[in-house]
């Protein structure tokens, strides 16, 4: 018997992002956004992460799976019915900024885009599924990237505030839980996804990234203040990609190095958004890396006034650090760096699997902030095989999720206040990192392949019925 119980109002559900499943990229008055020009396949990060990416579509060289996604735009009723059949209490989703403001700069929103999300929220309400809405999830309007230089440009603060305020006013009776920026702290690793620019050089990457983050901190705080004013009962959180950082051994030099990496990657953004001020350790880091922030009068007051109500996080892997590491020691597949951990197995894509790391992460965050936590992404990207009888026996996914849910239960027993759990890609969708459909996360299989072929038929995997029972028993039967 487990020595924990999940709270009776625990929010079980699943998570997706608009750009990875909606499709209909030119329908309903939607403007182009970053995901629309990102090619599919393992070349994706190589192409978009380098200076000189021209943000143009080249059908002769690449495929663009995000254009169709899994056609949620037209099939949302079918998909939400499947979520309801699993017993979802909540559904974490994002709104595509360029559906609401096609260029990002308009003074008036696009009514067709607003009406689409009205229909989605109404469908969720029909099944008593509570939406958790990410305002910006790698969906920066392309116009703000090509004409304004992304979040390096302070003008995006005002554009974002108008967008967020529009959402709060429109959906104030339909959405209670909001998140501002998806995986905000990941921006220093891949600035294009979160900040909407490719650094010109490695020398300018840190300066531009931390300046862009400052603009997002101000924008996030303004959104928090607006949400509290327009929807007094709302709860609005930050969203971190969290990876507890281990030292490769007990050499104090490696321990110190891992602490420094932990602080900058895991703590920096959280400290600003939760505590409302820049952490003391950032001063030395900025000096040693020649980072000088342009902070305008009033910015720090806004950040202090606009702290979040809860902390949401994605957790996929831990990170193991060593002060002086060779290229051969770096863990393959770990987008956030680090060396291989000899005690951990890895997924088909090289992501190390560490359920205990989730318990550590939740304890670290709760110890630091004493704010409610919400695991809004966690899952296993894997190749799925359809058996001769049409079934999909994804025991590997069940094993992964079981161990991580157990780790959450242990964290609750440790005293952590945990609001809910929404595994990533509850229905198969386009991978953000590689643009592949074959990297599947879902409880629901979608017949679409990497080359774009497929019927888009939905099919329940074994994990669908397993997770259904987990929700029914409130985590007592894993």
UniProtKB/TrEMBL annotation:
An example Gene Ontology molecular-function term: 6-phospho-beta-glucosidase activity
Top-level taxon in the UniProt lineage: Bacteria
PROSITE patterns: GLYCOSYL_HYDROL_F1_1, GLYCOSYL_HYDROL_F1_2
Catalytic residues in the record: 377
Keyword field: Glycosidase, Hydrolase
EC number: 3.2.1.86
Top-level EC class as recorded in UniProt: hydrolase
Family: Belongs to the glycosyl hydrolase 1 family.
Protein's UniProt name: 6-phospho-beta-glucosidase
Source species of the chain: Alkalicoccobacillus murimartini
């Amino acid at each position: 018997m487990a020595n924990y119980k999940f709270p009776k109002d625990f929010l079980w559900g699943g998570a997706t992002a608009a750009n990875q499943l909606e499709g209909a990229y030119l329908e309903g008055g939607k403007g182009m956004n970053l995901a629309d020009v990102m090619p599919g396949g393992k070349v994706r990060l190589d192409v978009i992460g380098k200076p000189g990416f021209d943000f143009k579509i080249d059908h002769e060289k690449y495929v663009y799976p995000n254009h169709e996604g899994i056609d949620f735009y037209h099939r949302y009723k079918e998909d939400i019915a499947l979520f309801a059949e699993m017993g979802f209490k909540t559904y974490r989703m994002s709104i595509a900024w360029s559906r609401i403001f096609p260029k990002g700069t308009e003074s008036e929103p696009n009514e067709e885009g607003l009406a689409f999300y009205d229909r989605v929220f109404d469908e969720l309400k029909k099944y008593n599924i509570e939406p958790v809405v990410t305002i910006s999830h790698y969906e920066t309007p392309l116009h703000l990237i090509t004409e304004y230089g992304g979040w390096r440009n302070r003008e995006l603060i005002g554009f974002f505030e108008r967008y967020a305020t529009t959402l709060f006013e429109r959906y104030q009776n339909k959405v209670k839980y909001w998140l501002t920026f998806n995986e905000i702290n990941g921006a220093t690793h891949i600035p294009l996804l979160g900040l909407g620019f490719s650094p010109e050089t490695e020398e300018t990457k840190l300066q531009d990234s931390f300046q862009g983050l400052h603009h997002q901190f101000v924008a996030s705080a303004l959104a928090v203040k607006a949400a509290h004013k327009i929807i007094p009962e709302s709860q609005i959180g930050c969203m971190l990609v969290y990876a507890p950082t281990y030292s490769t051994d007990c050499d104090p030099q490696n321990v110190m190095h891992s602490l420094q990496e932990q602080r900058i990657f895991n703590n920096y953004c959280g400290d600003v958004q939760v505590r409302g001020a820049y952490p003391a350790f950032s001063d030395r880091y900025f000096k040693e890396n020649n980072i000088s922030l342009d902070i305008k009068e009033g910015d720090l007051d806004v950040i202090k006034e606009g702290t979040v109500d809860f902390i949401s996080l994605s957790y996929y892997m831990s990170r193991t650090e060593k002060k002086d590491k060779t290229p051969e020691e770096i863990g393959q597949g770990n987008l956030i760096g680090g060396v291989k951990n000899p005690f951990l197995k890895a997924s088909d894509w090289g992501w190390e699997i560490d359920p205990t790391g989730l318990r550590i992460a939740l304890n670290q965050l709760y110890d630091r902030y004493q704010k409610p936590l919400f695991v809004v992404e966690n899952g296993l990207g894997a190749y799925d095989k359809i058996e001769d009888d049409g079934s999909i026996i994804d025991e590997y996914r069940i094993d992964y999720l079981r161990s991580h849910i157990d780790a959450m239960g242990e964290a609750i027993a440790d005293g952590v206040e945990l609001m809910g759990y929404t595994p990533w890609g509850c229905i198969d969708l386009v991978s953000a990192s590689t643009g592949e459909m074959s990297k599947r996360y879902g409880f629901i299989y979608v017949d679409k392949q990497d080359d774009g072929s497929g019927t888009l038929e939905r099919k329940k995997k074994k994990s669908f019925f397993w997770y259904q029972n987990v929700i029914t028993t409130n985590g007592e039967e894993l």
